[in-house]
Amino acid sequence: MEMMIAGFIILLLFMLKDPHTVRVQWNSVATFVGFMVFLTFIRIAIMSFNYYHGGGVGMYFPTQVWTFALVPWEDAFFVLPLVFLQKFKLTSKWFIWYPAMIGMSIWFGMGHGYQGTSAIFITALYPYFASYRYGRKFGFGTVMCCHVIYDFMTYYVGKFGWFLF
User: Fold this and answer.
1) pLDDT tens digit sequence for 59-105
2) Mean pLDDT across the stretch 30-39?
3) Mapping DSSP to helix (H, G, I), strand (E, B) and coil, where does residue 102 land?
């Protein structure tokens, strides 16, 4: 619970003190939605093919829909502290920033262990390669919105995608 509160405090501080960092570029979110629609059709086709050829009936997601409101916390807790360190030059990249990014990425990946071993390795790439890099370019609010959309669409395709074709 303390981590959740810390993440939201970090996000609130950035919103108050440096709103440009957590800006939302809605045209970029719209582009991402278009990409997700395309990806969703591919996912549904693969799941339907699998279902009709003797595969499973969907994926297990131990979550409730309301938990998607907490998704921005992941970006706030695991990435924004690193942005703070770099933005205000409070650290050397080689001695603190890179080890901190690697540690946060591993921690983030381990938090997705309930999705399987491969998910740990795949999601460990998210903090730097998606959230940090795209957040610096488009704003972390944009990344948070896209992260919610991605998780939401993944959840529903995993739960009901096999049924749609």
Assistant:
1) 555 567 777 878 888 888 889 888 888 877 766 767 788 888 899 99
2) 94
3) helix
The amino acid sitting at 76 is: A
Burial annotation 55-71 (CB, 10 A radius, 16+ → b, else e): eeebeeeeeeeeeeeeb
CA dist 102 and 122 (Å) reads 14
Q: Where are the domains of the chain?
A: 2-163
pTM: 0.80
Q: What is the C-alpha to C-alpha distance for residues 119 and 29, in angstroms, rounded to an integer?
A: 24
- E-assigned strands of 109-161? none
Q: Given pLDDT bands bounded at 50, 70 and 90, which one contains residue 58? A: low
- Tell me the HSE value of 149 on the side-chain side, using a 13 A CA sphere: 19
Residues sharing a CB contact under 8 Å with residue 2, sequence separation 6 or more, in sequence order: none
Query: Can you tell me the distance from the alpha carbon of 137 to that of 86, in angstroms, rounded to the nearest whole number?
Result: 15
Question: What amino acid occupies position 130?
Answer: A
The two three-digit tokens of residue 2, written as one number? 């303390």
Q: Cβ distance 83 to 140 under 8 Å?
A: yes
